[in-house]
């Protein structure tokens, strides 16, 4: 059970990284886009999805038998990542076009 929690979490975090990369790629080309609002909307969606994946990773441990020390360390790492993603979403939400 514990190993599956970590496997699921790794899968979620890989998805999260992919979505953040998609967001960065879209925003890096915004100056060439005719529809900047569409680009920003996509970046918001991908970044929000990344946050959802990060939260799903944590949720996967809630009903599993994982030692408190391992859970705490994992939780702190994931929450740090989620804070960065949340800050990125905040910045994207406040872009002016």
Automatic annotation (TrEMBL):
The keyword DNA-binding does not apply. Residues 5-91 form the Pectinesterase inhibitor domain. Coiled coil: none annotated. Keywords: Signal. It comes from the Eukaryota. GO terms for molecular function: enzyme inhibitor activity. CDD domains: PMEI-like_3 (cd15798). The keyword Signal applies. This is Plant invertase/pectin methylesterase inhibitor superfamily protein. It comes from Artemisia annua (Sweet wormwood).
């Amino acid at each position: 059970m514990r190993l599956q929690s970590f496997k699921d979490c790794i899968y979620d975090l890989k998805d999260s990284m992919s979505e953040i990369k998609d967001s960065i790629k879209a925003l890096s080309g915004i100056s060439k886009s005719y529809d900047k609002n569409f680009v920003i909307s996509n970046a918001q969606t991908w970044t929000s999805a990344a946050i959802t994946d990060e939260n799903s990773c944590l949720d996967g441990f809630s009903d599993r038998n994982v030692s408190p020390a391992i859970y705490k360390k994992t939780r702190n790492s994931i929450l740090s990542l989620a804070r960065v993603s949340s800050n990125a979403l905040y910045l994207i939400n406040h872009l002016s076009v």
